Records
---
Amino acid sequence: MASPLNYIFLASFLLFSLCPSPSFALKKSYVVYMGGHSHGPEITAEDLDRATNLHHELLGSYMGSHERAKEAIFYSYTRHINGFAAILEEEEAKEISKHPEVVSVFLNRARKLHTTRSWEFLGLERDGNIGIASAWKKARFGEDTIIANLDTGVWPESQSFNDEGFGPVPSKWRGSCENNTKAGVLCNKKLIGAKFFDKGYTAAVGKRPSESPSARDDDGHGSHTLSTAGGGFVPGANVLGFGNGTAKGGSPKARVAAYKVCWQETQQGGCYVADILAAIEAAIHDGADVLSMSIGGSPEDYLSDPIALGSFHAIQKGIVVVGSAGNDGPAPETASNLAPWILTVGASTIDRSFTTYVALGSKKHFKGESLTKKALPKESFYPLIDAASANLPNVSSGQSNICQANTLDPEKVKGKILLCVRGVTERLDKGKEAARAGAVGMILANDVASQNEILADPHVLPAAHISYSDGKEVFSYIGSTKYPYAYLTRSRTELGTKPAPAVAAFSSRGPNVISPVILKPDITAPGVNIIAAFSEAVSTPFNVESGTSMSCPHVSGIAGLLKTLHPDWSPAAIKSAIMTSAKSRDNNGKPISNEIEEKATPFDYGAGHVRPNRAMDPGLVYDLNKTDYLNFLCAIYKKPSEIAKFANEPFNCSKSFNAVDFNYPSFTVPNLNGTVTLTRRVKNVGSPNVTYNAVVRSPPQISVTVEPKILKFEKTLEEKEFKVTLKAERAGAADYVFGSLLWTDEKHYVRSPIVVNPAFALKKSYVVYLGGHCHGPEITAADLDRATNSHYELLGSYMGR
Ligand SMILES: *[C@@H]1O[C@H](CO)[C@@H](O)[C@H](O)[C@H]1NC(C)=O
Ligand SMILES: *[C@@H]1O[C@H](CO)[C@@H](O)[C@H](O)[C@H]1NC(C)=O
Ligand SMILES: *[C@@H]1O[C@H](CO)[C@@H](O)[C@H](O)[C@H]1NC(C)=O
Ligand SMILES: *[C@@H]1O[C@H](CO)[C@@H](O)[C@H](O)[C@H]1NC(C)=O
Ligand SMILES: *[C@@H]1O[C@H](CO)[C@@H](O)[C@H](O)[C@H]1NC(C)=O
Ligand SMILES: *[C@@H]1O[C@H](CO)[C@@H](O)[C@H](O)[C@H]1NC(C)=O
Ligand SMILES: *[C@@H]1O[C@H](CO)[C@@H](O)[C@H](O)[C@H]1NC(C)=O
C-alpha cells in the first residue's frame, strides 16, 4: 500500500512555492486543459496540426514568442483531449487559467498506484448456477475485446500474454508497440500494444526515470493488473507452491495493451498526471474498449483531476473506464476516482486463505495467514517473546515493538518465536529483522488501525499474521507466565473459507467528497491475496498482491466480457449492469461484513459484490448519454461556459436539472430536508413484453414511495421513467441510513442501494400562542372541537393539508 507521504510532501511544497522568490522565478510543469476538440468524425493530419498550432499560439501569446512556447510544451493533446502540458512560471500558469478557452490549469503532480482462485469464487467457472450459464462461455471469454491498462507496463514473456490460438489482431486496432524489441516489449497477437509515457515524469522530477525507455515492467504491478483483467489461461500457476491452479484474467481471450505511466520512485508515487492524460489520449486513439486504471491519489475536483478529465473523453468514445477506489480505508471519505462516469471499485476478500495456526502454551489457538514455504524446524513448542522486550540497549521498546530494522537484540531473540506489531515499516521487513536477530518464527499482530485485516506475505521465516484482538490475547498470555511458549503450523492453502467476501479494511470508503450525491465506490471485487502474473525482474512469474489495484482489473475483465456480449451497449449501460446485479450477502447468507467487525454499508461496497454471471443479463439498465453528463456537470459547477467547452459544442445547461435526478444506478441524498423526489429512467435490455415490480426496503425512519410501482415494457430497448419519493419520518437521525430499491420480473433482480442522510430534516417542536379563547362562561364540548379545528385549519394553511 502506498503511503500518503508523497501528498503531504506535495502540499507543503506548494505552500513553499507561493512565497515570492527574489532571485529567479520557479518553473514547474503544468497541464492546461481546454475541453474537447471540434474535429470531424475522421481526424485528419491537418486537424492535428491546427490543434498543435493553436496550443503554441495560445501559450506564445503569454510567453511573447511562438518558439518559446514550442520549447515549453512537452505534450500537445490534439486528438480527443484538448490541452497541453508545459513548463511554466507560476504567474504564467495563473494568467493562462483566465484565458476564455481554458477550462483549468493544474500542476503536473504525481498519482500513486493504488489471480487464480478469484474467478471461481465469482462463479465464472460454474455452469448452470441457478440456470445462469457462465458468463465466460456466454461472452466467449471476452474474445476480441481490447483492454488497455495504465500502470507500470508489462512483462511480455509472461505466459499470461502468450498468443497461442489467437487470430489476427482486430482490424479496428490502431495501437502498436514502442521499442518493439526483445529487450523492450515485443508484441504478439495477445499483447497488441505497449507504450510508455515519461515526459511528465521528466519535467516534474528534472530527470528521466532510471528505468529503460520501454513499457517493460520492472515493478510487477502492471503485469499483475493487466493479467488479472485480460490474461490468458496459465495452468500450474502458483506462488512458492501456494494457491496452485490455472491463472487467468476476467476476459481470458481479450487482447491487451499496456500504457506505462508509473515509474519507480519512492513509495510507488511516480505516475505523473501529464503522462496519464497522454496515455488516455493514446488509448482512445488506438481503439481500446476498456480502460483499467489502478491509479489514484487524494480525491480531487474533476476539473483538475486528469483521470476524471481523460475518462470523460474516453466514455464519449464508448470506452468503459474502471478505476480503483484507493487503499486509504477504513476511514470514511477516503475514496478517490469519484467522477460518475468512472466505475469505481473497492476491494474485498475471497474464500481462499493461506492458513497457519498459532498455538500457545495455554492451549489457545489463533488462525493466521502466511505464504511462507518454510515451517518450524521441529514439531514442538518454542519460547515466545514480544519484540518490545527484545530491544537492543540503544533503542526504545517502542521501536523494537514494531520490529524496525536493527532494533532487536539477538541475545534475547535467538531460537524463539517473536511477536511483532504491525505498522510504520513494511511487513516483509519486520520478518527480515526477526530473522536477522535469530528468531525461528514470527507472529505479526495487527495494530488497532488494521484490526482484522490479514494479509498473506512470503516472509523469510515461518510466520503468522493475526488480528488485533488475537494479538492482544498473545500479549496477555506472554504477560501471564514466566515461560511463554508457542508453535506455528505449516501454512496451507484453504478454500471455501467463510465468511467471504468481506470488505477489506484498507479499501477506501465513501461518502464521495467531491459530489456527495453520487455514491462511491460503485462496487467491490476481489482484492485480497490475489495471484497473478508478475515481473520476473523482481520475483517469480506469479505473485500474490492485495489492494484495490487488484480488484479494479477484476471488474475491467468483467466489463470486457460485457463488451464482447453487448458491443452496442454504452459505458453507462455496462456499468449499470455490473452494479445492479451485485450482491450484498456473503457465503454465509449474511449481509457482507467488513474487517473492522461491522456490517458493511454501501459506503464500503457501493452496490455490492460483483456477480459477473448475472451482470451479463441485467434485465434493465440505467443508461446515460452525453446530455445527461453535461447536465450533471452544469448542476454541480453552475458554470455553463465551461461546460460548453467540455461538450465541444454549443450546449445550454438545463436550468431545472437537479443533480439528484442524474440517472445513476444508485440513489443518494446527502441532505434530505423533509421530502425529495428523484426521477430515474430504466431501459429494458431483456426480452419484450415484460413486467417489473418495485420492491422497496426503506432505510430506517425514511418512507419511500415509487411511482409507478409497476413498469411494463413491450419492446426491447424501451425506456420508462419512474419517481422515488423519500420522506424523513422523524427528525433527528443526523447520519446516513441505507435501504434499497429492487425492480424484478421474477427472472431479473435489478437492485440499487438507497443512501440518505436526513441531517437537514431539522424539525423541532414549537408552541404557537394565539392569545385567549372567546368561549362562553361554560366551556362546552363544541367549544373545544371548534378550537381544535381552528388550530388544524390555521396550521393546514401552511402545510397544505
Ligand atoms: C528498448 O528497451 C530496452 C529495455 O527496456 C532498453 O534497454 C533500450 O534502451 C530501449 N531501446 C530504445 C531504442 O529506446
Ligand atoms: C500444480 O498443479 C499441477 C496440476 O494439478 C501439478 O502438475 C503441479 O505439479 C502442481 N504444482 C505445484 C507446485 O504444486
Ligand atoms: C544500536 O546499536 C547497534 C550496534 O550495537 C547498531 O547496529 C544499531 O544500528 C543501533 N540502532 C539504532 C536504532 O541506533
Ligand atoms: C439523452 O437522453 C435523454 C433522456 O432519454 C434524451 O431526452 C436526450 O435527447 C438524449 N440526448 C442525446 C444526445 O441522445
Ligand atoms: C441555447 O439557448 C439559446 C437561447 O435560448 C438558443 O438560441 C440556442 O439555440 C440554444 N442552443 C442549443 C444548442 O440548444
Ligand atoms: C407483445 O405483446 C403485444 C401485445 O400484447 C403483441 O402484439 C406482441 O406480439 C408481443 N410481442 C412479443 C415479442 O411477444
Ligand atoms: C429546509 O427546507 C426549508 C423549507 O423549504 C427551508 O426553509 C430550510 O432552510 C431548509 N433547511 C436546510 C438546512 O436546507
Note: Residues 1-23, 126-132 have pLDDT under 50 and may be disordered.
---
Amino acid sequence: MSAIETQFQQVRDRIQAAENACGRAGAVKLLAVSKTKPASLVREAWHTGQRDFGENYVQEGIEKIQALQDLDGLCWHFIGPLQSNKTRSVAEHFDWMHSVDRLKIAQRLSEQRPEHLPPLNICIQVNISDEDTKSGISPENVQPLAAEIVALPNLKLRGLMAIPVPTDDPAEQHAAFQAMSGLLAALQERWPDQGLDTLSMGMSDDLEAAIAEGATMVRIGTALFGARNYS
Ligand SMILES: *Cc1c(COP(=O)(O)O)cnc(C)c1O
C-alpha cells in the first residue's frame, strides 16, 4: 500500500471505531483537507475512493479543481476565511462553503452562484470557544444569520461548522462540540423542513470527541496527507 492508502485506511478505521463507540455507524463523512497539497495527491486519494475535499485558499483550490476535472464525483468544499472580493470564485467553483460568518458573504455567494449549478451548500461558522482571534459568529447570533440565509435563493443552509480552540483536555473538547450540537438542534427545531443535517467539526486531533457529540463531517488534513509545509 502507498502512504496515502495507508493513511486513508487508518483514518477511516478511526472514524468507524468512533462511530461504533457511540452507536452512530455510517453517520460521519470524511472531508479530506488538501490545502497546500498537490493535485497529484488528491488524485491518489480519489483512487482510494475519497470524493470530498476541502480547500482553504481560493486560488489554490481552483487550480486543483481545474486540474482534476477528469475525475468523476468530486465534491469541493471551501473551508477557509473568505474576503468579500473573492466570493465569486467560491460561488462559481465549489459545492460547499463551510465558513460563512456574516450576511454580506452569504448575499454575495447567492447573487454570484451561476444559474446552471445547484444551490451552494452552506454551513455557518460558529466561534464556539469565544476566541478573539478565530473567525466565526458568536452562538447567540447564529439564529438571526440562519434566518437571513434560508431566505436567499441560491444557497442551501445545511448546518454549522466550528474550529474549537485546540486542547488536549477531552472534557473541554466534548464541551465545545456538545454546544455545537445544541445549536444545530435549535436550528432544526425552528426549520424542520430545511434539511439541516450537517455538523462540520472534528480535525486530526479531536475527531473522536467530535463524533461522540454528533459530528456528521470531520475535516482531516494532517492525518491523511502528512504535515503541511508553509514555506
Ligand atoms: C487545515 C484545516 C483542517 C485540517 O486540520 P488538520 O489538523 O490538518 O487535520 C480542518 N479544518 C479547517 C478549517 C482547516 O483550516
Note: The beta strands are 29-33, 52-55, 75-78, 96-100, 120-126, 155-162, 198-200, 217-220.
